[in-house]
Every structure is written in structure tokens, then in C-alpha cells.
Amino acid sequence: MEVYGEDGTILTDDETILNKWKTEFQNIYNTDNAASNFDDEFYRQVSTHKSSLEDKMLDPLYNANQDRNTTITIENIRRLVYKTKNGKSCGIDSIPYEVLRYECLVIHSLFQLIFETGIIPSVWRQAILCPILKDKSSDPRVPLNYRGISLLSCISKLYSAFKNSRLSSYLESNDILADEQNGFRSDRSFSTSACVRVNNRLSQWFVCSSGVKQGDNLSPTLFSIFINDLVEEVNSLGLGVNIGDSTLSLLLYADDIVLLASSETDMQCMLDKVHEWCKRWRVLINTEKSKVMHFRPSRSKRSNFQFKIGDNLLQITDTYKYLGVTFHDLKDFKDNANRLSEAG
Hints:
alpha+beta, globular, 37% helix, 2 domains
């Protein structure tokens, strides 16, 4: 495998290539920097509150949500293990699911110990990133043209699946997640380290200080909790489109967000609100993939309003694909109908 150097030359030395891959992916997973114009004062407030909550959790008398802290049973373990599939890639410990099916009693003892102490094996914090080219037409010598697929310890994913089951049940039974969130529906935080695997060789390890762990069962649920108050903030504007007796402001599928507005100024107001939220919570928006679509009758002119996220101008497009459906600004769904009929 080859990559470009900083001066545009093609690098072929294995060690140099691994270091290049490590640097590129390390930058992706550590975007928390001053150049991003984040709200540092809000960050300090959240950090102080987080420390306060952690101190409370260390108190022996702390007993919040005791119904979620019941003992793990051997049946819990068996259900988790028998749901796994054969032939799945394993993480740095090289232990596949096929082996774990014969060790339910050992897993039960391990999980109960972890659940009681809050201490996990350090290897569970490590991930191997396997690069997969996003687009076959893109240059294979550019690391950022690849998507890093994370390989985690199989047994760590079992434990996360157990924790996620209890957490998701609590969120759903208490109606905590916003109705607008349609993705991923049915502890303490720690940093994760990762390395890149190229040609069966591993790069040096690097720390991932932002985001949730890719490929972990808990990550989708944790992200849904994280983004939940964005829905409340956008809805607080009282803007959106009327559908029957309801007003719909936005749609969420995981981190894919659709804003709905009845006027140009309303849309810009909603974009400003999203931008403010992202600055506070240190989230970067991919403005290149963010588009505006003006739905209108065929005789009406398309808007020439300059929509912005922060200082970034957004492109107005006539087509956009969302969750597999192609939308047209003139509300023409013939392409989708033809595609579905051909598939049928």
C-alpha cells in the first residue's frame, strides 16, 4: 500500500506508511482544539458538574436507579452469547465469539466482578482500525478516503450489550429520548486507544479523546442521550412545518439531522440554534455534506437566500438522498417509485 507524503511524494516504506495512517486517524478522533471555536466556558462548567456527579457516585450511600443494578444472572449471559454470530472479526485479544459460547460460567463471574467494581480490563479500551475505501473512484493513496472500521474485543462487546439492554430499557420506560430520534431505538466514561492495521501490520497506539467508541453496543444509546437536548432546543423556537395538528421542527436518525421550516428566516434561525448547540457541546458539523432544499411548486423560483452554519455557506440543492430515499425540490418521487418497482 502507498500513501502521499506531506510534499506530495509517494511513500512506500512500511513504517512510514503506518505512521502516516496513524497521524491521519489520530487527527480525526482528536478534534477538540481551540481552532474549532468551541465554547470553553461551557466546557469548564460541564467538567465541574461531571466531577461532582462522579464524587457522588463514589459515596457508599449513593443508590440511584437501584432497579438497574440487580445481579447479573447466568441466563442473562447465555441469552447474550447465543445471540452472537459465527465468523465475526475479533479485537486485539483474538478471542472470537465461537470460543465464548463454551465459557458462560467464566463470563458470568467476570461480568459480575466488573459490574460490582466498575473496573474493566485495559484491553477492552483498545480498538484496531481497519481502513475500507469509501469510494472506489477515490485516490487509494489518501488515508482520509478510507473509513476506519473498528475491531473490538468480542467479550467487551458482550458486556456492552448487557449494559446497553438495561440502559435502553430505562430510557424507553421513562420516555427520556425525544420522539424525533428514530435511530438506535427498539459507568463511567473512559478514553479509548486505537491503532491502524495496514497489510496485517499495526501502527503505534494513539488516544481517541472525542466521540463514542465505534462498534460498541453502548455507543448508539450514549450518543442518543448526548444529542437529546438538541431536539428540545430546536423545538423551543416554536418553528417548523404544520402536519395536521402538530408542528414538526426536525427529524433525527442517529446523527443525521433534518430541519424543517416554513420560511427562509425560520430555517436560518434553526441553523443558528444548531450551531450554538454544537459550539457548546464541541461538535463539528460537516458543512460539505449539509445541504438546503427548497420544496416548491414547479412554477415557483428556487430560493436564493444565503443559508449559513456559522461562517460557512450552505449549498442549495435540487436533489438529496436521505436514508435511501431521493428527494426532489419539486416533490417528484418518480425516481424512487421506479427504483422500488425494479427492486420488487
